[in-house]
Amino acid sequence: MSFLVPSDFYHSYKFAVGYGRVFLIWFKWSAEPLSLADLSPSPDNDSKVRVAYQGFPGAFSEAAALKVYPQCETVPCEQFEAAFKAVELWLVEKAVLPIENSLGGSIHRNYDLLLRHRLHIVGEVQLAVNHCLMALPGVTKDEVKRVLSHPQALSQCEHTLSTLGVIRESVDDTAGAAQFIASNGLRDAAAVASSLAAKIYGLNILASGIQDDHDNITRFLILAREPIIPKTNKRFKVKLLELSNYSSSIQSNILCSKSRFAFQTSIVFTLEEGPGVLFKVLSVFALRNINLTKIESRPQRKKPLRVVDDSNNGIAKYFDYLFFIDFEASMAEPHAQNALGHLQEFATFLRVLGCYPADSTV
Ligand SMILES: O=C(O)C(=O)C[C@]1(C(=O)O)C=C[C@@H](O)C=C1
User: Fold this and answer.
1) Do 11-128+220-224 and 252-356 show the same overall fold?
2) The Prephenate dehydratase domain covers which part of the protein (predicted)?
3) Class of domain 11-128+220-224
């Protein structure tokens, strides 16, 4: 099946699965697709945007939402899934959810939810995460016997917490930990959270920058009901203003290969059984000089085991996986379309999760 479509027909794309074969459906949207302008944080257009995030006010996810949409109305949600549902039910326009951290790795729950829900990735935002240890005013470090926080935050501060010799307790989010300590007057506990959370809940910062690595970055995805459709005539555009965010060596790379830098695409797929199939899939990108920025595998929840009738050994059972890949190219580019056409030869399922501008600012 060919991915070469007349450019004026390039309004949208969609993959669907039908009885084991993957069908590619191209269709025209009647509504005007979202463009880069919908993402730009200009005070004029983001003032009305409601953005869902998981956690209490003061959570890092809220800071990530405000980094992209400084004037937005942030909407706290108890669970990640509630944030997905808030977008689906039109309660908010966008959701901002953490997907990976430079110290703690992937946030698997959100990979699973991306597949279960039909939202589109329309952007990403990278946030420098500076963790603080905080307790009720008057409480000293020596009095702290337990530390409450989000499991990711606890793992990012592993070294400091081991040195303190405290009990770690996982809660839903960092700011929620601070709120819990404040509202229950816990004098034997501290929270790992942002300095903003300390301010909001009236806690005293005992130590700042307690993450194991100074450069602690969390990458968040921005999700929406509609996808961004990169237009062919816009695909190589990088605003000169944006260039000032990069070092001079990177700037010259951008000017040489603007398209690679501007957009990235996230996909999820499953593979047929066979030797070297994943190797072949990776080669469809390598052969076209498309850079991969992330690969993640997750068990298939509904079909975790693959049963193979091996003539020498009888029935063999393997784990069956979903693969998530991010690559540096826009779906408007023929070589990206060709790569996915080629990938389809080995895939039993393929879905484009989104095509969006990469965030290189921290
Ligand atoms: O608990 C928060 O403050 C969050 O926003 C969640 C979260 C995460 O899930 O990774 C976000 C950023 C930090 O990496 C730690 C926690």
Assistant:
1) no
2) 50-225
3) alpha beta
Tell me the pLDDT tens digit for each residue of 142-159: 999 999 999 999 999 999
Cite the active site residues. Answer: 218, 220
**Which residues, 6+ apart, have CB-to-CB distance to 291 below 8 Å?**
260, 285, 327, 328
* Domain spans in the chain, listed from the N-terminal domain onward: 11-128+220-224, 132-208, 252-356
Q: Which atom of ligand 1 is nearest to the CA of 61?
A: 5
The answer to whether residues 68 and 41 touch, using CB atoms and an 8 Å cutoff, is: yes
Q: In this predicted model, what pLDDT tens digit does every residue of 220-246 receive, in sequence order?
A: 999 999 999 887 544 443 333 333 333
Tracing tokens 């952007």 back to the chain, one arrives at: 123
The answer to whether residue 188 scores a pLDDT higher than 80 is: yes
> What's the CA-to-centroid distance between 152 and ligand 1, angstroms?
6
**Distance separating alpha carbons of residues 352 and 224, to the nearest angstrom:** 14
Q: What is the pTM of this model?
A: 0.79
ipTM of predicted complex: 0.93
Q: Which residues line ligand 1 (CB under 6 A)?
A: 55, 59-61, 98, 101, 107, 129, 150, 152-153, 173-175, 218
What is the dotted CATH code of the domain comprising 132-208? Answer: 3.40.190.10
Which one of 56, 126, 147, 174 would you pick to mutate in the ligand 1 pocket, going by the greatest count of ligand atoms within 8 A of its CB? 174
What's the CATH fold of domain 252-356? Answer: Alpha-Beta Plaits (3.30.70)
